Amino acid sequence: MSFRSHMDTALEEARAAAARGEVPVGAVIVAPTGQVVARAGNRTRELHDPTAHAEMLAIRAACAALGQERLTDHALYVTLEPCPMCAAAISNARIGRLYYGASDPKSGGVAQGPRVFAHPQCHHAPEVYDGLSAPECEALLTGFFAARR
Ligand SMILES: [Zn+2]
């Protein structure tokens, strides 16, 4: 059940990102104890930073809060399949489990495209669970892009 509530927190972050005019993606990092250590939504526009994806911001915040460069045995919940950049960061951070909602045929790097975790150069691959709250995650993205057309 913590399962579901962490994705709900990621969805809250995604909705907050949409309200800021950002692509609605949200991410949450959970410690092995079950405690949320960081949560973030996309801020690429606000920060003028193409790397300010929800996952990157959450990883940076979690590492800063913990004073360490690795998030061993931590879980990352994100509303959209991570892109190749974020997948590489997830691997470098040694995150133990990745849960994501919507799949991303256009920019995803986990189940499609470069499939970063399956690459021979990938030194650490998390356990991956996809499709969590996928309808809600997808509806948020579809609604956002429809409204901007
Ligand atoms: Zn990304």
From TrEMBL:
The UniProt GO MF terms for this protein read: tRNA-specific adenosine-34 deaminase activity; zinc ion binding
Cofactor-binding details, from the entry: Binds 1 zinc ion per subunit.
- UniProt keyword terms in alphabetical order: Hydrolase, Metal-binding, tRNA processing, Zinc
Quickly give the catalysed reaction: adenosine(34) in tRNA + H2O + H(+) = inosine(34) in tRNA + NH4(+)
Q: Which Pfam families match?
A: dCMP_cyt_deam_1 (PF00383)
Q: Which PROSITE patterns match?
A: CYT_DCMP_DEAMINASES_1, CYT_DCMP_DEAMINASES_2
Look up the EC number in the record and give it. Answer: 3.5.4.33
- So which cofactors does this thing need? Zn(2+)
Q: Which GO terms describe its biological process?
A: tRNA wobble adenosine to inosine editing
Judged by the first EC level, this protein's enzyme class is hydrolase
- Catalytic site positions: E55 (proton donor)
Q: Which residues form the CMP/dCMP-type deaminase domain?
A: 1-111
User: How does the record describe its quaternary structure?
Assistant: Homodimer.
Q: Give the record's family classification.
A: Belongs to the cytidine and deoxycytidylate deaminase family. ADAT2 subfamily.
The free-text function statement in the UniProt record for this protein reads:
Catalyzes the deamination of adenosine to inosine at the wobble position 34 of tRNA(Arg2).
Which HAMAP family does the UniProt entry name for this protein? tRNA_aden_deaminase
> What PANTHER family does the record point to?
CYTOSINE DEAMINASE FAMILY MEMBER, TRNA-SPECIFIC ADENOSINE DEAMINASE
Protein's UniProt name: tRNA-specific adenosine deaminase
Q: Which organism is the protein's source?
A: Thalassorhabdomicrobium marinisediminis
What high-level taxonomic lineage is stated for the organism? Bacteria, Pseudomonadati, Pseudomonadota, Alphaproteobacteria, Rhodobacterales
